DNA sequence: GCATTTACTGGGCATTCTGTATAGCGACTG
DNA sequence: CAGTCGCTATACAGAATGCCCAGTAAATGC
């Protein structure tokens, strides 16, 4: 669970140059290959590294518009709403939250006009009482993990 | 830019089994190795695939609490606030948005108590007028891209 | 209609990496 | 003090990669 400095450096290296192999990583980090291999195995079985899935850019796929929708749900309809939202491809992420809304989801769309269609599809479901949408204009800090990794590694 | 069915299948395959190589992928997809290689190169230079960075789980790093904070910013302080937020490791993501707030950020913390510390650090900055936080309880749909890829590939 | 370009196939080749195993060494622990 | 753990160092077979080429089929331009 705890991450030491070598783990941190390894994660950082992998984040910066993902196509790097175990052997090359060991050279960069100045440790034996077996060490890197053992660390990687441990990080993966720990669940620290979930995987190495391709990082796909929705914008490049033709979905340049991102929005966050806060949803208010009718009592007891939670699981139906979840299933509904999971069936919409443009819903990239869904959280249930405390606070004003009950759920928060990340949406993408082909255009602002298309966003209307997506929202209609998302909220056009019985269990959803109200929705408020915030359209993303800029993304000054793209999803990142390295600063947190550094902190966790004690750096 | 446009994604055909083979691209979609390749992305799906890579998402499901990321450690797969080009050769193995070509076998699974029933095409020549050179084809997979060419498609991958194209997807990467297109920007569709940003990279293959390790997918790190903040919870496994000791940050099991996630929250979204909506921030209201003092006019003209945008770039200062951006820089401030970028300097906080627990800020995983930051967007500027339309709607009620001016910014939306994703936070993580070691505990609910620790979240208070993080929020204090985030909002303890002159340009931020008001903040409202929603703590994530469940994540019924984790960040995903495959359904969108399938739709973009026309299937 | 004809030539050109593009994308895919199938094959080959040298280099490199992976998976796996070995043994030695220093540090920590019961 | 013996046992365990993590790291180093090395070895080896099998596999994958990067790169090359020639042939073919479909789309594009003249």
UniProtKB/TrEMBL annotation, chains A, B:
It comes from the Bacteria. One of its GO terms (biological process) is response to amino acid. Signal peptide: none annotated. GO terms for molecular function: sequence-specific DNA binding. Residues 3-64 form the HTH asnC-type domain. Keywords: DNA-binding, Transcription, Transcription regulation. Gene3D superfamilies: 3.30.70.920, Winged helix-like DNA-binding domain superfamily/Winged helix DNA-binding domain. InterPro entries: AsnC-type_HTH_dom (IPR000485), Dimeric_a/b-barrel (IPR011008), Tscrpt_reg_AsnC-like (IPR019888), Tscrpt_reg_AsnC/Lrp_C (IPR019887), WH-like_DNA-bd_sf (IPR036388), WH_DNA-bd_sf (IPR036390). GO terms for cellular component: cytosol. This is Lrp/AsnC family transcriptional regulator. It comes from Streptomyces yunnanensis.
């Amino acid at each position: 669970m705890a991450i030491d400095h070598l783990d941190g450096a390894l994660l950082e290296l992998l984040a910066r140059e993902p196509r790097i192999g175990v052997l090359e990583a060991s050279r960069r980090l100045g440790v034996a290959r077996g060490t890197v291999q053992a660390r990687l195995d441990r990080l993966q079985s720990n669940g620290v590294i979930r995987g190495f899935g391709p990082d796909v850019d929705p914008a490049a796929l033709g979905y340049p518009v991102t929005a966050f929708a806060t949803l208010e749900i009718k009592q007891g309809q939670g699981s139906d709403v979840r299933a509904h939202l999971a069936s919409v491809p443009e819903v990239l992420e869904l959280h249930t939250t405390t606070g004003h809304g009950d759920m928060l989801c990340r949406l993408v769309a082909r255009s602002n006009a298309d966003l209307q269609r997506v929202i209609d599809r998302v909220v056009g479901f019985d269990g959803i009482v109200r929705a408020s949408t915030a359209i993303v204009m800029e993304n000054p800090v793209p999803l990142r993990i390295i600063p947190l990794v550094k902190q966790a590694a004690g750096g």
